[in-house]
Amino acid sequence: MSLEKKEIMNLLDKYDKDEITIATLGSHTSLHILNGAKEEGFKTAVVCEKGREIPYKRFNVADEYILVDKFSDIVNTDIQKRLQELNSIIIPHGSFVAYAGLDEIENDFTVPMYGNRNILRWEAERDLERKLLVEENIRIPKKYDKPENIDRSVMVKFPGARGGRGYFVASSYDEFDHKINDMKSRGWIEDEDIEKAHIEEYVAGCNYCIHYFYSPLNDEVELMGMDSRYESSIDGVVRIPAKDQLDINFEPSYLITGNHPVVMRESLLTQVFEIGDRLVRSANKLVAPGLNGPFCMQTLVNDELEVIVFEISARIDGGTNSFMDGSPYSYLRYGSGMSMGRRIALEIKAAIEKGELNKIIT
Ligand code: AMP
User: Fold this and answer.
1) Binding site membership of 124 for ligand 1 (Cβ less than 6 Å)
2) Residue 315's domain spans which residues?
3) pLDDT score of 1
4) CA of 123 relative to ligand 1 center, distance in Å
5) Is 106 helix (H, G, I), strand (E, B) or coil?
6) Mean pLDDT of 41-57
7) Considering 183, 201, 219, which residue would you say is the last residue of a domain?
């Protein structure tokens, strides 16, 4: 049974609002989430796998260390209880979602959570994610229902392989077939995966991951920063000459290993704000209370200067680590030093002051 909002609100009512702790799992974006919370005067707690606490201690971002045998123990009843005793608001990020699990977050995890816990499934499942984008006509790569229909370069993605080994590019049905058979012979995919292959237009363009913040308290979509991905092995292999790339018969993967800060040409920013507003509108319609807090649109910009969205994050995205001390865009809005983590803390602080925590917690 899905968690009732009432249940969470009852817990939140019992919290001492002068003693709120901002808590998260020690991974992903937790360094600047916790650092930003401290900057805004909150207490902080990190739930961390034993042995992985070193960066948090070295950077001194947490007041409380809750060490667990494995990250997924964050959902254990005693850990949840400890977090509630600390008046914790949990900030969900990509690793938190992966380790806690969507079912658990939706049904059993009763620590008050910042943002909309029900939208997390919508970014994780490709069909739901697509619905969110299509609802307000956001430009996305064309999707192919059958490999026989391939009429241009496409990117083929398998479920669960996000960014990892198992993406490939093909330009015809024959090439698709040949590459699928090759992957099967290497044991990378099974027959049942082939039916689930997601085939979409390959966008020849530059990568911009756009980090937004939507505040329901003042109904505004803010542009907080942008990054571009540094992916292994594709970004490494371009450092060898094309001739050698062919010689070694290399199959690239697209596994994210880091991020570069980036800015977009200024004339594209109209599109950037437009697509951010659109996603907020469609989320409001499809999965109330919609996007609430940080979200990200992963885009490719082609040579016709179209901003094409190939993926979204409906929570803080890892690329926000590229602006822990602020980005050029957050500088325009807030002056120096506004990370996404600090922006979250600012929102929670404002909601506490206005008595409107119910608007941003689920
Ligand atoms: P994803 O796992 O969907 O985040 O994609 C991983 C990487 O694959 C991206 O960062 C891009 O480099 C690349 N990619 C994904 N979709 C496309 C596409 N439709 N066209 C071109 N490159 C893509």
Assistant:
1) no
2) 124-138+204-354
3) 47
4) 15
5) helix
6) 97
7) 201
Same domain (yes/no): 216, 179? no
User: Which atom of ligand 1 sits closest to the CA of residue 161?
Assistant: 2
Q: Judging by beta carbons within 10 Å of its beta carbon (0-12, 13-18, 19+), is residue 283 exposed, middle or buried?
A: buried
In this prediction, residues 162-182 reach a mean pLDDT of: 85
Choose one of 130, 300, 312, 317 to mutate for the ligand 1 pocket test, by most ligand atoms within 8 angstroms of C-beta. 300
CA trace torsion 39, 44, 46, 51 (10° rounding): 70
| 192 and 234 both lie in a single domain | no
Atom of ligand 1 nearest to the CA of 163: 2
- The arithmetic mean of pLDDT across residues 266-292, rounded, is 97
Pick the residue whose CA is nearest to atom 13 on ligand 1. 254
Average pLDDT value over all residues in the chain? 94
Pocket lining: 319 vs ligand 1, CB cutoff 6 Å: no
Q: Could you report the per-residue pLDDT of 194-222, keeping only the tens digit for each? A: 888 899 999 999 999 999 999 999 999 99
pLDDT band at 302 (very low <50, low <70, confident <90, very high): very high
- Biggest CA–CA distance in the chain, Å, is 66
Q: Any idea what the CATH number is for the domain that residue 34 is in?
A: 3.40.50.20
Distance, CA 13 to ligand 1 centroid (Å)? Answer: 43
- Regarding the beta carbon of 205 and ligand 1, being less than 6 Å apart is answered no
Q: Is the CB of 311 under 6 A from ligand 1?
A: yes
List, in sequence order, every residue forming a beta bridge with 307; answer none if it has no partner.
Answer: 301
Q: How much is the pLDDT for 195?
A: 82
pLDDT band at residue 346 under the 50/70/90 scheme = very high
Q: Answer yes or no: do 62 and 176 share one domain.
A: no
Judge if the beta carbon of residue 200 lies within 6 A of ligand 1.
yes
Residue 161 predicted with pLDDT over 70:
no
Mean pLDDT along residues 31-58: 97
Residue 360 lies inside a defined structural domain of this protein: no
Q: State the total domains in the chain.
A: 3
Amino acid, single-letter form, for residue 33: I
Domain co-membership, 94 together with 157: no
Is 225 a residue whose pLDDT tops 90? yes
Together in a domain, 30 and 15: yes
Is the omega angle on the peptide bond into residue 233 within 30 degrees of 0, that is, cis?
yes
Q: Are strands 206-215 and 220-233 parallel, antiparallel or unpaired?
A: antiparallel
Q: Domain boundary at 165, 186, 201, which?
A: 201
- Measured from the Cβ of residue 288, the count of other Cβ atoms closer than 10 Å reads 11
Q: Which atom of ligand 1 is nearest to the CA of 141?
A: 19
The CB of 207 under 6 Å from ligand 1? The reply is yes
Regarding whether 69 and 216 lie in a shared domain, the answer is no
